[in-house]
Amino acid sequence: MLVAVDIGNTNIHLGLFDQDSRCLINHFRVSVSDTHLKDLSVDPSILQEASDCVLASVNPRAENAFCNWLHPRWKGRLLRVPVDVPVSIPILARNPDKIGTDRLLNALAAFQRTATATIVIDAGTAVTIDAVSEKGEFIGGVIAPGLETLKEALHLRTAFLPRVSVQRPRRVLGKDTNEAIKSGLYWGMVGLVEKITKKLLEEQVNTPTVLATGGDAELLANEIQIIDEIVPHLTLEGILTAYCRHFNSKDV
Fold first, then answer.
1. Does domain 2-145+189-246 have CATH number 3.30.1330.10?
2. Integer Cα distance of 107 and 5 in angstroms
3. Residues 69-99: pLDDT tens digits?
4. Where are the domains of the chain?
5. Which site in 41, 121, 153, 209 is 20 to 30 Å from 224, CA atoms measured?
6. Which residues are annotated as catalytic?
7. In angstroms, rounded to a whole number, what is the distance separating the alpha carbons of residues 19 and 252?
8. Is the entire prediction scored with pTM above 0.70?
9. Mind listing the pLDDT tens digit for each residue in 64-74?
């Protein structure tokens, strides 16, 4: 068994993969605001069955909190992406060392799934929309604020606009301030993702497959018909793929 850990700006996502089938057996998610990870209810005995724990992080503070949680529960090998486990994907974009590890892992996992040109939408704290060539090369992409980021910015940068929960509104026209904010956030994000993805599709020689992942993927995907598939655990799959390629084995 392999333990894969994706540490993002909002959540820590832990997945357990079977050694033989490379299938995800179980997964756990906890907010990074839970600094002691009290809600990360993983049975320590399950962890002891794993050969390695592979961690990818874009959040140093949350990574430190996770390692403090893991230390008394884990005696095996802890590997970090990309220091110990490189993401073996050709990069055609400029300044490859500045590209987020999560974006590269998503691209790697996406091409592993499709074996063709692919566009990957990751709708989280930030929205990334990245292109992978038919040869499996990371070409580049787009980064924009995510729903929660926009929601917080609107509340913090105005005097009277409240925080709201974001879901699909029943109608576009808001009949009060809360409805107006919810509509603007939701339909604004749908429009942003759909328009950028369509523009990226137009720029590709071959017609890519469009995959979506991230915490807000399901919320948005019902209104974006060009999305071919939602893959909830794509980044975890990328960690698994990177690990397997690095150790040159199909078995974890």
1. no
2. 17
3. 898 888 889 999 999 999 999 999 999 999 9
4. 2-145+189-246
5. 153
6. 102
7. 5
8. yes
9. 999 998 988 88
